[in-house]
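Collaborator request, handled under Task 6.
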Amino acid sequence: MRADRLLSILLLLQVNRKVTARDLAKRLEVSQRTVLRDMDALSGAGVPVMAERGTGGGWSLVEGYQTKLTGLSAAEIQSLFLARPPGLMADLGLGRESDAAMIKLQASLPAASRQHADFARQRILVDARGWRDPAESVACLPVLLDALWRERRVRFVYSRVLGEAGERIADPLGLVAKGSTWYLVARIEDEPRTYRVSRMREAEILEQPASRMAGFDLTAYWERSAAEFREKLPRYYATFRASPEVMQWVRYRGWRLEEEVSEGESVRLRMRFDTEEEAVQFALSFGGRIEAIEPPELRAKVLAGALAIAAVYR
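Structure tokens returned to the collaborator:
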């Protein structure tokens, strides 16, 4: 993570009076070009970094400058120590490292501030997994993460939704966890694209340096991409009349309930589905306890399905 790397550079400069870009790149397992970009970021954030050229030169901090965690507020400390989703860190192969980093970070706090870290860690846990989440393969994830750190291209075989598989060669731009599902954002043919990690196999790192898009912002790309994806999702709206006793199952099974209005001894529902077929299955699953009202085409298909079921059991 870049924030972790910037903090590491800052601490290395504090411990060592002068460090060359080459040594920093080797220590952090990144390119010297990445180190130079990180130095620009630190300078832009107000950290007084200095570069000395020539023999014996390197990067250093202005004499006497030192950063400490004592200036953090209680809320800032608590935000740092909120428990990270353990499953996601384990997926990345960073479970132990994450725990060790938190221990070191806590040890660096003044004694009076450590209680804020303990308070947050013991009271808030983020678990990104759903109760019924299917186990997704993340076998390619360590390779992708390594490629990101080393700024190398990757080759992998990708299977689309309908099963077609094909080889891809891409410049990795970032990894995103949506819930407990991992996605690779990568540059292919000068365009950023998104790939689900569980559909990838045979991933390998190439020796070719990855080409990062100028000005690319992973967070901004993902927000924009996710919004566009939601807008393109299919929508099919339908209205039903239901018995009150089925409402607990309607809510429990996660159908998209848009509106619910009591009408005497029944409940009028407006639902959103992806397809008409999904709405037909919904109506038939409750038998006579739900009646399809609108649209008329849906009502006709539910009736035909009910007659077909009756014919089978007759």
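The cover message to the collaborator said: "The chain has four domains: 2-61, 73-123, 141-231, 236-313. The chain has twelve helices and eleven strands. Please let us know whether this matches your experimental observations."
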